[in-house]
Amino acid sequence: MAALGWFTRRRHLPTEASVLAGEASAEAARKSSVQAPPPPPAEPEFPVVGDERAAAFFDLDNTVMQGAALFHFGRGLYKRHFFRKRELARFAWQQAWFRLAGVEDPAHMEDVRSSALSIVKGHRVSELMTIGEEIYDEYMADRIWPGTRALAQAHLDAGQRVWLVTAAPVETATIIARRLGLTGALGTVAESVGGVYTGRLVGEPLHGPAKAEAVRALAAAEGLDLSRCAAYSDSSNDIPMLSIVGHPYAVNPDGRLRKHAREHGWRLRDYRTGRKAAKIGIPAAAGVGAVAGGTAAAVALHRRRR
Question: Residue 214's domain is classified under what CATH number?
Answer without folding.
Answer: 3.40.50.1000
